[in-house]
Amino acid sequence: MTKLEQLIEELCPNGVEYRKVKDVYTRLKGTPITAGKMKEIDNPDGDIKVFAGGKTVINAFEDDIPNANITRVPAVLVQSRGVIDVVYYDKPFTFKNEMWAYTTDDKVSVKFLYYVLKNNIQIFRDAASGMGSLPQISLHVTEDFLIPVPPMEVQNEIVRILDNFTELTAELTAELTAELTARKKQYEYYRDDLLSFDRIGEIHRVKLGDIATDIYRGAGIKRDEVTEEGIPCVRYGEIYTKYGIWFDKCYSHTKLEYVNSPKYFEYGDILFAITGESVEDIAKSTAYVGNEKCLAGGDIVVLKHNQNPKYLSYVLSTSLARQQKSKGKVKSKVVHSNVPSIESIEIPLPPRDVQDRLVEVLDNFDAICSDLNIGLPAEIEARQKQYEHYRNMLLTFGVTNV
To answer: What are the Cα distances from residue 394, in Å, to 77, 158, 166, 387, 391?
Structure first.
């Protein structure tokens, strides 16, 4: 019998009382503060953490926020807008007054509340209502939430177990993530080295404009014009998020009547996304090797040619090609490329039979890496689900006050 089992058998064998959060914990208020003020006081050396919702967290000096409600005891912060979540913090901090926090005396554990709320975070997210583009929960969602209140000894033992398990899960996730990153770098190095042709003498180099049989921009397809059935299509953002070196099926469809002056692509064409969020990723490309005739959305450039499409896509993903693509222009914080920029990209172009052999080698290596890319994230997800399952078991009690 474990220590926790012994404590439960001794102190609460028949279950525990469930009470509303507001009846057990003390709610703390935040600080009225604007985004402009946060930029003004942001200082990495500051000793006060300032939470502003979502992922926005800064450091500040107390003198810079003289009227702030600073929490100096361990507390659970409820991030109530944007990314709905809870945070445990035990050093001095404050937060924007659209959020709230909970603390307590020694009769119950603050960290225990954190684990209980975290265990039920999906309930809070489901309760969120939209406010503009940001989900938001109201105060009563956590205030009236029923939580188990076992004896303090039981709470402390559960916290100790979950702290240890959290640390172990984080360490394993970090190790698996590092392994995945290393394998991706290894693949990129091998691909770049293979396609550099440095060891086999001079290889003819060409600009894409010289081998293009046609090159043109797609036509706009709005988000609300995407349908479950209809003509297969690709929107530029999907090139960043859904497609790799090549693809043979489109994720999206649309109706022809939605598109003015439709622009098509077909087998072998290379698609470039010419709008993006960073110069490092601008003009990401992919090769279409499917059999259907598809529509290209706006901010996509379609390149037609007579080369091996997979070879072009592989060579366009190398570091040398990405450096040339990164000459895109930044406008209003968005990066753009264009047809002349795409045409000017220079690549090595061996004979077609060499292209075919290189594609065979790279396809095999890509398949190995894809297995890793599937296996390691799946392992990370499995460990997280295992942790969440274990946490849920530890925080489930019989109810005595029904």
So the answer is: 22, 7, 13, 11, 5
